Amino acid sequence: MRSKVEADSSAIPAPIGRADQTLAKKRRLLQIAREEFIRQGYRAVTMDAIAQAAGVSKRTLYLWHEDKAALFRACLNAGVERFPLAQFSDAAEPESDLRAFGVALLQEFTRPSTVGMARLLMREAHEFSEFGPLIRQSRDDYLARPLAEYLVRTGISKRDSGSAAMLLLSMILAPVHNALLVDDALPDEQQCRLHVEIAVRTFMRGTERGANAAAA
Question: Which residues cross the membrane (predicted)?
């Protein structure tokens, strides 16, 4: 039988290791940096202001990110890593799989922080030539290429899978594009699901007709 001291000590959570504390600080820094970039714009933000807002020393900030451009890239990566690639599951029916992926993706792109970063990129991209390659690489690595591979793997699109993936992404994200370009209201959760349902169904019918035409 355990003693009372042993029983009590088992309920005490293990102390957080130094590595875990550092990782938590890095994540918090990126969150605060994203907020500052969105609020002030890329040009106006200073490393000093971000260090102060995050409660870290300038030395620590520059140890983690060598300059503002590197910090901004890290902020972009932190955002794209939330993209719902895990929704691709070969156990599901492809259309159901794509709907789940599309809903998760559209909901991610309607998050205030994601919309804020998108508005920032649109507003200042003409001043900073490095933005374009960063956006394209993130899109290709985290969205277009994995989606194209899934379309091939499931037999949905065996030819021009890259173009098909880009088309489906554009269809899913159309409400976000409209919000950014013409200030349409962003969809709520129910509207996201309805839009994705229509987009995926239309895409699947189009690819099916294309496959039948190619086989004829």
Answer: none
